[in-house]
Amino acid sequence: MTIFEKIINKEIPADIVYENEWVLGFRDIAPQAPVHVLFIPKKPVENFLEASLEEGLMDRLFSAIYEFVEQAGLNREQIRLVTNCGALAGQSVFHFHVHLLSGRNFSWPPG
Ligand code: AMP
To answer: How far is the CA of 64 from the centre of ligand 1 (A)?
Structure first.
């Protein structure tokens, strides 16, 4: 079981900012921007590739992100979404998650 499943099960604390039946959003413990929220499906799938095979999962996840963006009143000109797929791409928790970053300007390319 990954640490994110423990957060879903409320076995360990997290700063939860969004929740519905399928999706949880909580603040990253090591924020890289003033707003840094991780959106995860409650169903444990390992990464972007596995998640893509699950009917409806991506729709629900991105709809949740959209709702949060609206609710939080984020600047629509200053949003970055990131998902690292695989250890070589920087993935460290093997439960699919999308990083939502906002509240500052961003540069490209990423490291
Ligand atoms: P990644 O490296 O793309 O797999 O992202 C994993 C993210 O999870 C990192 O940005 C970590 O800072 C974050 N993280 C790890 N443990 C926790 C936790 N207990 N609560 C919130 N965020 C966490």
So the answer is: 19
